[in-house]
From TrEMBL:
<comment type="subunit">
    <text>Monomer.</text>
</comment>
<comment type="function">
    <text>Inactivates the type B streptogramin antibiotics by linearizing the lactone ring at the ester linkage, generating a free phenylglycine carboxylate and converting the threonyl moiety into 2-amino-butenoic acid.</text>
</comment>
<dbReference type="GO" id="GO:0000287">
    <property type="term" value="F:magnesium ion binding"/>
</dbReference>
<keyword id="KW-0046">Antibiotic resistance</keyword>
<dbReference type="InterPro" id="IPR015943">
    <property type="entry name" value="WD40/YVTN_repeat-like_dom_sf"/>
</dbReference>
<keyword id="KW-0460">Magnesium</keyword>
<dbReference type="InterPro" id="IPR051344">
    <property type="entry name" value="Vgb"/>
</dbReference>
<dbReference type="GO" id="GO:0017001">
    <property type="term" value="P:antibiotic catabolic process"/>
</dbReference>
<protein>
    <recommendedName>
        <fullName>Virginiamycin B lyase</fullName>
        <ecNumber>4.2.99.-</ecNumber>
    </recommendedName>
</protein>
<dbReference type="InterPro" id="IPR011217">
    <property type="entry name" value="Vgb_bact"/>
</dbReference>
<dbReference type="Pfam" id="PF24684">
    <property type="entry name" value="Vgb_lyase"/>
</dbReference>
<dbReference type="GO" id="GO:0046677">
    <property type="term" value="P:response to antibiotic"/>
</dbReference>
<comment type="similarity">
    <text>Belongs to the Vgb family.</text>
</comment>
<dbReference type="GO" id="GO:0016835">
    <property type="term" value="F:carbon-oxygen lyase activity"/>
</dbReference>
<keyword id="KW-0479">Metal-binding</keyword>
<keyword id="KW-0456">Lyase</keyword>
<dbReference type="GO" id="GO:0030288">
    <property type="term" value="C:outer membrane-bounded periplasmic space"/>
</dbReference>
């Protein structure tokens, strides 16, 4: 595809596709599953809800950031630049989507109004950081991870960026922030989670009790407990920094592969299971799992996010977004 120069506006498609929906049988109240087809071959990946009700999503294979309107299933694609391969997207304090843009080794901001793309490139010495996920701290500083073994921070106001070497080298992956402002990440290759000191950028490793578990992504609940998706073990685990404790639960099935994790506004935990081709809801109170298998093989949902009553993910294998909606109090 022809791509415009970065720092320019590049809306490359406005398409409409009716959302597909089906009811999901669940043990703990009714849910509705809806699918939203997007551009074929784009590799729909990480998603995040915007304040206006739309959903931003990454097209890792075609170098775009998409914006879905769930009301009618229409979407727009914004070209992020030559060689772009976006991984993660979050909404900043300014209401704009911010993207970890691995293809150009940069952080990208997309203006939600005119779709202008602004790039903040990593230092040349970090030639390929393999950028992954990010969070904004309470001071508006953007923190990010790269699987090459780095984490970093960007001041959006000044453009100042600092990159730090993560302890134990490569693997730095999923990231989260707690309600009180603590920043954590997971290291997939390093088999640990770590807490970042925002003042120094140093990270302190915390070891999960399951060896070689493959901690992939993390998400904080409302109490500041850190939930971890363990790719190698098939567990979802929880670390409570208040007392240093850990608990772990094996996902159902013969060969669970826990990829993504997200904690909703009710402190219910959602994970994706590549082994079962499903999104799975876990209730920490009852310790029950509820599975929502995809209606197509090879969904490969690599990230989850949401807003009250809705959990969102991108089926990177099928180029669809999927929403699981709670249609009654659960």
């Amino acid at each position: 595809m022809n791509r415009r120069q970065f720092l320019g506006t590049a809306v490359i498609g406005i398409l409409a596709a009716p959302a597909l929906s089906r009811r999901a049988a669940a043990q703990e109240g009714p849910f509705r599953v809806k699918y939203y087809p997007v551009a074929a071959g784009m590799g729909s990946r990480d998603t995040t809800p915007a304040p206006d009700g739309t959903i931003w999503f990454c097209g890792q294979r075609n170098g775009t950031l998409g914006r879905l309107d769930p009301r009618d299933g229409s979407y727009k694609l914004v070209d992020l630049g030559k060689g772009a391969a976006p991984h993660g997207v979050i909404i900043g304090p300014d209401g704009a989507p911010w993207v970890t843009e691995g293809g150009q080794n940069a952080i990208a901001r997309v203006d939600p109004g005119d779709h202008k793309v602004t790039l903040f490139r990593l230092p040349e010495k970090e030639a390929y950081a393999n950028l992954n996920t990010a969070v904004f701290d309470k001071n508006g500083i953007y923190w990010f991870t790269g699987q090459s073994g780095i984490h970093g921070r960007l001041d959006p106001k000044s453009g100042d960026m600092t990159v730090f070497k993560s302890p134990r080298g490569r693997g730095t992956y999923g990231m989260t922030i707690t309600p009180k402002g603590d920043i954590w990440y997971a290291s997939l290759a390093g088999n640990h989670i770590a807490k970042i000191d925002p003042a120094t950028g140093n990270a302190t490793v915390v070891e999960p009790p399951t060896p070689s578990q493959g901690a992939r992504r993390v998400w904080s609940d409302s109490k500041g407990r850190i939930w971890v998706s363990e790719w190698n073990s098939g567990n979802v685990s929880m670390h409570d920094p208040a007392d240093g404790s850990w608990k772990a639960w094996k996902l159902p099935g013969s060969n669970p592969r826990t990829y993504a994790v997200y904690v909703d506004d009710k402190d219910k935990v959602w994970v994706t299971d590549f082994g079962a081709n499903a999104i799975v809801r876990f209730d920490p109170v009852t310790e029950k799992f509820t599975a929502f298998p995809s209606d197509k093989a090879g969904a490969n949902v690599r990230q989850l996010d949401g807003r009250p009553g809705e959990t969102w993910g991108g089926e990177s294998g099928n180029d669809r977004l999927v929403m699981i909606q709670t249609v009654a109090p659960a």
